Amino acid sequence: MSLTPNDPQPCSLTRFLIEEQRAGHIEPDLRLLIEVVARACKRISIAVGKGALGGVLGDAGRPGEASVNIQGEAQKKLDVIANDVLMEANAWGGHLAGLASEEMDHSQPIPDEFPRGRYLLLFDPLDGSSNIDVNVSVGTIFSVLPCPRQGCDPVDADYLQPGTAQLAAGYCVYGPQTTLVLTVGHGTHVFTLDREVGSFVLTGRDIRIPQQTAEFAVNMSNQRHWQPPMQAYIGDLLAGKTGPRGKDFNMRWVASMVADVHRIMTRGGIFAYPLDAKCEAKGGKLRLMYEANPMAFLVEQAGGAATTGRQRMMEVAPAALHQRVPVFLGSRTEVEEAGRYHREHDAGTG
Ligand code: AHG
Ligand code: MN
Ligand code: MN
Predict the structure, then answer these.
(1) Tell me: the pLDDT tens digits for 292-341?
(2) For labeling, which of 5, 140, 295, 345 is most exposed (least CB within 10 Å)?
(3) pLDDT, tens only, 179-194
């Protein structure tokens, strides 16, 4: 066995995090918190993988009585299972002051019987719920913020920090492989779950999203509901080689943000969930605090860009825990191009 500093041994998530701590990139408590979240993701991965055999498919709630979350969306059994796994795993470690989830009306302080930590954890326990029952990739998204007040129960208002305040963010895709993608503000790194060993292994250090792309991800069925700048932008992509962009674009839409973003992390692309007439009153479809901001942090750390079309995502000042936003993220040049259509429209020159 080689013990030289450059040894080619697989690097586990545990070792990677210890090295990040030694490099001064994370506090020991944040390292332990990330380990706990990764462990919870392994449990969720096992539950997802069991499918019909584990009785985890289908809707939550009693027959004929759908269970609905604060978003007004019907919950799947796996939404509830994944939320419970993350809640239970993170309650007692002593690293957190509180948690907030897509599936819970309000944030929850750590129960009194456990020590309080200095961090707040936000998560989308199961992203891509519409894909669970059809055996298409789903995932978990998480974000870590500092707790602004120590020694008291954090309330929803304590979570309302811009994405630039995030200390760590990540997602785990439960697909053909279970893949954890993580940033602590020093690059974006990919870990693949070794299912035999039960450990996440570093398989992509400091990944970079290609700056240019010819691939876009959007739910085209919403086209007629979009606002003019989005209509113009996608119209020009669809015009292909003979249009103003001068090249053909390909389209992919998994409808699980984790899977669409992971493809973009791997080979580039732009992901868009813009404002449309159906979601305009709510501010957008995707949630700022536990979908858009963690993805924005990961994408920026991989050299990409993330905006609302009009503003850098991580600079949006949040007003509510479950706030929704329009989302454009991925290859930098293409996200800037989408932003140009919005700017020119707003200035009356588009
Ligand atoms: P969630 O399952 O956590 O509610 O998120 C679903 C989101 C996101 O994953 C995906 O990009 C988008 O909704 C899919 O939207 P469409 O149903 O419009 O395709
Ligand atoms: Mn989601
Ligand atoms: Mn979800």
Answers:
(1) 999 999 999 999 999 999 999 999 999 999 999 999 999 999 999 999 99
(2) 5
(3) 999 999 999 999 999 9
Q: Is residue 210, in this structure, part of any structural domain at all? A: no
pTM: 0.96
Query: How many domains does the chain divide into?
Result: 2
Q: Judge whether residue 81 has pLDDT over 80.
A: yes
Residues 6+ apart with CB under 8 A from 88: none
The proportion of the chain whose per-residue pLDDT surpasses 70, expressed as a percent, equals 98
Q: Is the pLDDT of residue 150 over 90?
A: no
**204 touches 211 (CB < 8 A):** no
The answer to the question of residue 6 being in a domain is no
Is 60 among the domain residues?
A: yes
Pocket test for ligand 1, best of 273, 295, 324, 329 (most atoms within 8 A of CB): 273
Q: Which ligand is nearest to the CA of 223?
A: 1
* 32 lies in the same domain as 133: yes
What is the DSSP annotation of 245-313? T-S--EE---S-HHHHHHHHHHH--EEEE--BTTTGGGT-SEEIIIIIHHHHHHHHHTT-EEE-SSSBG
Range of the domain at 233: 215-347
Ligand 1 pocket, CB under 6 A:
73, 102, 124, 127-130, 219, 255-257, 285
- Is residue 255 classed exposed, middle or buried when 0-12, 13-18 and 19+ CB atoms within 10 A define those classes? middle
Q: Ligand 2 centroid vs 40 CA: distance in angstroms?
A: 17
Residues 192 and 270 in one domain: no
166 and 60 assigned to the same domain: yes
Between the CA of 274 and the centroid of ligand 2 the distance, in Å, is 15
